[in-house]
Specification:
It is a single chain. The protein is α+β, with helices and mostly antiparallel strands. The chain is built from six helices and eight strands.
Length: 216
């Protein structure tokens, strides 16, 4: 019986603005169709991405984000990257050499998830503004805002191992969700929110007054 041929794969690790997140970049696409998916638990990854499911076997892994040709891993504080980055890089590379498909299916609830609720009385700068987006009607400004985000913001965010999704526009407020390396990092969330806010205010004066950025 012939041994399955392995897929030559190059993979390198890249730091992100979030010290808890590391971006692992491959020389081939890992997910197609322009999709992006973030897994918060091993159970979420089951039936969707075997790679993500297996990465949760590392006890320090908190979430796995897959987009384009990279995987962003968010870890806890139990170990520094200097102790585990080589092990994770080698593991992901070996897995990719043996598996041509990284994401087999993306459930709808992972594509359009809402922010997690916090315990009663607890708030963060990224989550205190949680809203029910279904309450907002589409507006004439939505497409313009999406275009500006896609042209000026998304490339830089993806370069840093994250993602940004436009959620809604209402009452001169723009609501966006942050994923990947941008998620769970108060400093990067505040920096990104400020940058997006300045951009949209400059491009759409009197239309945009505030950007509310939430972690997905």
């Amino acid at each position: 019986m012939d041994t399955p041929k392995r897929i030559p794969t190059a993979l390198y690790a890249e730091m992100t603005p979030n010290p808890a997140a590391m971006k692992f970049v491959a020389d081939r696409p890992l997910i197609t169709g322009g999709l992006q998916v973030e897994y918060r638990t091993k159970m979420e990854a089951r039936g969707s991405s075997l790679l993500a499911e297996e990465l949760f076997n590392f006890p320090m892994v908190k979430s796995v984000f897959i987009s384009g040709n990279y995987v962003t891993v968010l870890k806890d504080e139990s170990l520094g990257w200097e102790m585990i980055v080589q092990q994770l890089r080698d593991y992901i590379r070996e897995w990719l050499m043996d598996n041509p498909v990284t994401v087999t299916a993306v459930p709808a609830h992972l594509l359009n998830r809402t922010p997690e609720a916090l315990p009663e009385g607890e708030t963060t700068s990224a989550s205190k503004s949680q809203v029910d987006y279904s309450n907002f009607e589409p507006t004439e400004y939505d497409d313009v805002i999406r275009h500006l985000l896609d042209e000026f913001v998304r490339p830089a965010v993806e370069q840093d191992g994250g993602a940004i999704d436009f959620m809604a526009y209402n009452d001169k407020k723009v609501y966006v969700q942050l994923k990947g390396s941008c998620s769970g990092c108060p400093s990067s969330t505040a920096t990104l929110k400020g940058g997006i806010e300045n951009l949209l205010k400059a491009k759409m004066p009197d239309i945009v007054e505030e950007v509310i950025a939430e972690n997905a």
